[in-house]
From TrEMBL:
Residues 188-317 form the Spore protein YkvP/CgeB glycosyl transferase-like domain. The lineage of its organism: Bacteria, Bacillati, Bacillota, Clostridia, Eubacteriales. InterPro entries: YkvP/CgeB_Glyco_trans-like. It comes from Flintibacter faecis. This is Spore protein YkvP/CgeB glycosyl transferase-like domain-containing protein. It holds the Pfam family Glyco_trans_1_2.
């Protein structure tokens, strides 16, 4: 979305990959004509706020780095865009003319007052779902609903399959795309793959360490783990699948949030089967098959494979088109302009 704010210069700061990461010593990388990306310096020891003598030096180090980069780019009192409650500790260390807090998840692992203070200090708070907006409403009178978006042209254009990622595969293909994190619950996939050996299951994306089910999935001949690929190739994989899958993450419990992954799935028009929390109401019942158990997941995968061609494809694409990044960007510009921040 930031790349579409073409008249705005953006400095993007990402956290260090670890305590030995020295990427912050490199020059900023021009990732878009208007966006320069930097890596923040690591803090030596991740400590809690209560250990002030250890905690504050790390925050000051990050603050100095951001101020130095901003001065080098001749930024004066810029708009500060925060996405993590931990960034509340930088507010007193930086000069800025406006503050936005962009919330796309619940932060149950962090102290509530961090997010409360950040939201309270922000000129505008963006919330990615109605539940998140309700949660933040007591902290700010300027909460705006801003759901996730999608690169609709990239994912809605059918692949010609001139590049077939699975040339030797016959039979139904069911796929998922994303980073395989330790918190990702792949139990429904394991159950389905063991029950339906003639189906092929694809887990596309980087394989983070620590997911306890990955070793068992690797041993199954009908599970394909190709690793990551460039974003431009992801649609080729999605269109190769007959059904697209979505799973729960144990660390993400906000049950009305429509993820970017889900919007990418919908843009293809392919049938989608998604796992839901036990008491969760289906957020997109007209276009997504929602399962509450491993057995129901398998049953709905069968229904999705039997779905008549184009039965709900256009409705799925319409949902995604309404969330395209240009439309989201227009919303953001209008809100920030009204607030006097642009």
């Amino acid at each position: 979305m930031l790349s579409r704010l073409r008249d705005t210069q953006v400095l993007y700061f990402s956290p260090a990959a670890g305590q030995l990461d020295r990427s912050y010593l490199k020059k900023g990388k021009k990732v878009r004509p208007n966006i320069t990306a930097y890596t923040l310096p690591p803090t030596w020891v991740p400590v809690e706020e209560t250990y002030g003598r250890l905690f504050r030096p790390g925050q000051r180090k990050i603050g100095r780095f951001i101020r130095s980069v901003a001065a080098r780019h001749r930024f004066r009192e810029p708009l500060l865009w925060a996405t993590d409650p931990r960034q509340v500790h930088l507010l007193d260390l930086l000069d800025y003319g406006g503050l936005v807090y962009d919330c796309d998840r619940e932060w149950e692992d962090l102290p509530l007052d961090w997010e409360g203070c950040l939201a309270g200090a922000a000129d505008v708070v963006f919330a990615a779902s109605p539940l998140l907006a309700d949660r933040l409403a007591p902290c700010s009178s300027n909460v705006a609903l801003l759901p996730n978006g999608v690169n609709f042209p990239l994912f809605s254009r059918p692949s010609d399959l001139s590049y077939d990622p699975l040339p030797q595969t016959t039979g139904p293909v069911l796929g998922w795309a994303g980073t395989i994190r330790p918190e990702l619950d792949l139990e429904p996939l394991l159950y389905a793959a063991r029950t339906m050996p003639r189906w092929t299951f694809v887990l596309l994306g980087p394989q983070g360490e620590g997911n306890s089910l990955l070793p068992r999935l690797r041993r199954l001949p009908n599970v394909v783990l190709p690793g990551g690929c460039p974003m431009a190739q992801v649609p080729d994989w999605l269109y190769r699948c007959d059904v697209l899958l979505d799973f729960l993450r144990d660390d993400r419990t906000c049950d009305d949030l429509v993820s970017c992954r889900m919007l990418e799935y919908l843009a293809t028009g392919r049938p989608v089967v998604s796992m839901l929390w036990p008491d969760q109401i289906e957020p997109l019942p007209d276009v997504v098959y929602g399962a509450h158990s491993d057995q129901e997941f398998l049953t709905l995968c069968r229904h999705a494979l039997d779905e008549p061609p184009n039965f709900a494809a256009q409705r799925r694409r319409s949902h995604a088109a309404a969330a395209s990044w240009p439309l989201r960007c227009t919303q953001v510009v209008n809100i920030l302009t009204t607030a006097g921040l642009l």
